[in-house]
Design goal:
The chain is α+β, with helices and mostly antiparallel strands. Helix content is about 25%, strand content about 20%. The strands form 2 sheets. It has a 4-stranded antiparallel beta sheet with strand order 4-5-3-6, with helices on one face. The protein has a two-stranded antiparallel ribbon with strand order 1-2. The longest helix is centred in the middle third of the chain and has 25 residues, at about 65-90.
């Protein structure tokens, strides 16, 4: 597909990507009967409590910068292990996006098909769930 070139008011050229279809095609092995199940969902994933990296007992107090750096390393390691798990279970095609490890807690957000959440909930190495919808009615 070709990109179209547009001229903005400032004289700079902008490239517009072709729009993707808002419909998501059914995943392999899915009957496609339930339209709600073909939507992408946001899933939060953390390592199971018993799989959390053990924190070494330090004799001297550590600085916040050291603790944060160690947390970032653990978060990056968790992202790598989650990506390896998704690849091993042939679920990468059902994942649209994965957040970058950005903090000191090993927690990631996936935009994925509902079947990925089902598989993650069954895996003993992960805790996974979705956020409750906050629809406000007036």
């Amino acid at each position: 597909m070709a990109m179209s070139r547009k001229q903005s008011g400032s004289g700079k050229s902008l490239y517009a990507l072709p729009r993707a279809s808002p419909r998501v095609r059914p995943l392999p092995g899915h009957s496609g009967g339930d339209p709600a199940s073909s939507e992408w969902i946001d899933v939060m994933v953390m390592p199971a409590e018993d799989r959390m990296p053990a924190r070494p007992v330090a004799s001297a107090p550590r600085s916040r910068a050291e603790l944060y750096r160690d947390g970032q390393a653990a978060s990056a390691q968790f992202r790598d292990s989650l990506m390896d798990w998704l690849k091993a279970h042939h679920l990468l095609g059902a994942v649209r996006a994965v957040s970058e490890p950005g903090g000191s807690l090993p927690m990631l957000t996936l935009r994925c098909a509902p079947r990925v959440l089902d598989q993650l909930r069954r895996a003993p190495e992960f805790e996974a769930g979705t956020a409750m919808s906050l629809e406000l009615h007036s």
